[in-house]
């Protein structure tokens, strides 16, 4: 798992958040209950979540509010899921979108 993420959580030390496990590209990661998929992926150190179908350029969450559509991923086999607009769930299978 990557740990060099520039996206860092602000959690009070006395709080111990509940967690869920999800899978990114087949590897297990942990997220906080209530995280959006985008927040969970960024906190896990994922550097890009899809690739442009035209150029293959890496793309990643940008606006975090549902406007740019750069965060689209595949979730449990469903394409074009906006990662910033959906809450992560235990056992989710998330993959980079390449088409
Ligand atoms: S990050 Fe812009 S729509 Fe999700």
Automatic annotation (TrEMBL):
SUPFAM superfamilies in alphabetical order: 2Fe-2S ferredoxin-like
Listed GO MF terms: iron-sulfur cluster binding; oxidoreductase activity
Keywords: Oxidoreductase
Pfam family, one: Fer2_4
Top-rank lineage group of the source organism: Bacteria
Protein name, UniProt field: Sarcosine oxidase alpha subunit
